[in-house]
Structures are given as structure tokens and as C-alpha cells.
Amino acid sequence: MSKTDKAWEVLFQRHDILNNVQKNGFFEIQAKEIRKEREPRLMAKFDHYKNLPTLFKENGLSILPISRSSYVIGEFDVYSKVNYDKNLKPVQVPFPSHITTIDPTNLYSESSALHCAHVTGMMADVLGEEPEQTISGRMSSKEFGFTIRTRSGLERLIEIKNSQVEIDGGYESKTKFMIVEAKNEKVDDFLVRQIYYPYRLWREKTYKEVKPVFFTYSNDIFSFFVYEFTDANRYNSLRLIEQKDYIIAHENITFDDVAALFHSIRTQAEPQIPFPQADSFPRIVDLLGLLVENDLSKEDITLNYDFDARQTNYYTTAAIYLDLVERYINKNKQVMFRLTSIGREIMLNRTKEKYLKLAGSIFAHEPFKRVFQEYLNTSKMPERKRVIQIMKECDLYNINSESTYFRRASTVISWTEWIMNLPKIY
């Protein structure tokens, strides 16, 4: 259990929270009560469903701030799914040659990705008008009320009074004001509050149309999800208008590039660590991007990003298997993760070189190279049973059962498909 899980267990027992929610439909808790166990900023901000403490997940609960000193817990529907359009080809935009203070090969913080999106004209394209960045940071929500859907389908009224609001970027044009919530990873969902509270604040402060936007920077792709609230007084009235994807202009990856890389890479002996179980290679790239900025602990990754505890284990292990990440113990005896020198060098390359070198780190392992060779020979992915047969011939570390081979084969197939799709994406 995490420190947050343990602290909420104490608070649930102390305040009989479950019974209060069942009886009254909600429970209001003061920040000072939370602080008796742990800092509220660590106990009440869960940007994704996966980040919720175990007790909240088990009982269908979530938490919202209602003032600077209090929160409300209930069966509230606070998250919205993010469905990336796989058929959307990113628009290539040139990077301005006169800009020297933004490095387009090092956009691994949310702020740097937003600044780059602005100077390359992405914000103007999304808005349809030339904007200026006017606000960012923390501010007060003022006072407003809204209804929110509960797990049982009922609507419950919530009143907000001077809650803290944080805006990653606000962009004002002639007739519009765009509020952007940013993440530097691909996500499954997001906390609607992060755009709803700012939306309610600013629609009262400007006569211009307020456009709420959720933004992700993942695998070098800038994705904008443009929303509207069809009823400003209903939290769950969020509706997606459009998704727009962009990428900094670069030399395209061709299949000939991938084939030449394949033939140039020599396989290495299998490392004495678990074979990967991490089907989404783009998530590994996101993890590497997070580690460009800072070394992170397991808890850092699990609580602050769209990974649950099991995924954190799987994806850090996969990155270690590829020699892109290493594990160490810090002075506080915490298990930490950091990029290896190879991992850091790869992540600071331009787009084409970066993804070819990442593919090379996969080809250096015999199971993946042999499966890709069969794809080259037959122009189709080998069947799973054939992939398993190849894996059994490769002296993999500590795989002892047929079921484990079956599960790990999914990783071999999905990573190979990722390499095959590089010319389509980049």
C-alpha cells in the first residue's frame, strides 16, 4: 500500500466516511483533518482514475475541492475518457528559425511543449485566430455552483467558494479565450475539474467565447482535444468538438530506413532480468520522456502519471531490459529510476533519429529481430504460436510456463507492430 492509501484508511475509519456518504450522498472533509495524516496536496489531487487510492476505487468514490480549506467526497463521475483518433495524421509544422530559447528536441515538460505549440502556430490553428498567451498558474475560482452526475445516475448540487484553480495556459484572441490543461504523456482519461473550474471562472470574467482544451504531448505528437460544455452549470455536459494533432516538421521515416536499421543491428545476449510484459511501446517512450526532466521513484510515477502500480513495474522493467533506464537506491533508501546514458542520448535526438534508435534498441534482442525477419520474409506478422516458438529458442531469462510465454508474446507482437508502423506515423 502507498502512503496515500494508508493515510486514507485512517481517515475513512476516523470519520466514518463510507457510512456518511451512503447516508448523506457525500462527505465534506477539512484540509486540516487530512493534514493530520499527510499533506492535502498529496492526498486529494488525482489527475487520472488510476491514481485514486484503493478505498476510493473499491467504493466508487472521488474527491473534489470546494474551497481552499475543504473537499467533498462522493460517488461523483469526475473523469472523462480520452480516445485518440488512430487515423488522424499529425500535421507537420515548421519550427521558427529565429527561435533560440526553445529546443524542439527537448520538450519533456508541459510548459516547454505548450510554448513550442504557441510559437509554431498550433494555438492559432486550433483557435482559428492569432492568440497571445495571457495567463497561467494559480488563482481563485470565486464562487459558483454546479450539478454533477453520481455513480447511480443522480445529479447532485455542489457549491464552490474560492477554491484554488491552476491553469497551464490561457490564450486570448480577438473573439476567443482558450484554456489549456496539459499533460506530457498519452492518457486514458483526465480530471474534468481541471478545465471545468477555470472555464466557470473565466466565462464570468470575459465576454469572449471560452474554449476548454485538453492537450497532450506524447511521442513527439502534440494532441489538442477541443471541448465545449453544453450546459455551463453541469459538470458532466462536456462534449468533444474535435481533435487536432501536430508534429514538428522533420525528415520522414521510410520503410527502407527501418529495413536498413534492421540489417545493421547485431543482437546481444539476453539480459538476466525479466522479459518485458509491456504491450504499449509508446508508453515506454512517454516514461523515458518523464525521466528526461527528473529521476522518479515508483510512487512518483504511479501517483502523478497515468500508470497504476502494476504498469509502473512492467514499464520500468521493460525500459531496463532495453538498457534505456536503470534502477538505483537514493539516500532515503527509495527505489529510483533514471535514464541510462544511452537512454538520455536517444531522447535528445531529433524525431527520425530518435525513433530509429529506439527501434534499434528493440532489434538488439533476438526474439524481436527474428520475428521481424519473418515479417520481412512473408509480409505479414507471424502467428502467436510461431512467436512463442521463436521465444523458446532464444534462451529468455526465467520464463518457465506456457502461460507466461503466451502473455509475453503479446509484447513481442505489439513492439514489432510499432516498428512496422513508424513510417506511417513519422
Structure notes:
With 426 residues, the protein is α+β, with helices and mostly antiparallel strands. It has 3 domains: 3-75, no CATH class; 81-248, no CATH class; 255-425, Arc Repressor Mutant, subunit A (Orthogonal Bundle), CATH 1.10.10. It contains 17 helices and 17 strands. The chain has helices at 3-15, 17-24, 31-35, 40-43, 54-58, 110-119, 122-127, 193-203, 255-264, 281-293, 298-304, 309-321, 341-347, 351-363, 366-378, 384-392, 402-425; strands at 27-30, 62-65, 70-74, 79-81, 91-93, 132-140, 143-149, 155-161, 164-172, 176-183, 189-191, 209-218, 221-229, 238-248, 296-297, 325-329, 335-339.
Compact summary:
The protein is 40% helix and 24% strand. The protein is α+β, with helices and mostly antiparallel strands. A hairpin with a 3-residue loop joins strand 9 and strand 10.
Q: How many structural domains in the coordinates? A: 3
CATH topology of the largest domain: Arc Repressor Mutant, subunit A
Q: Architecture of the largest domain in CATH?
A: Orthogonal Bundle
> For the terminal residues, how far apart are their CA atoms?
40 Å
What is the percentage of strand-forming residues? Answer: 15-25%
Sequence of strands across the biggest β-sheet: 5-14-13-12-10-9-6
**Poorly predicted spans:** none
| CATH top-level class of the largest domain | Mainly Alpha
Q: What's the shape?
A: globular
Query: Which structural class should the secondary elements be placed in?
Result: alpha+beta
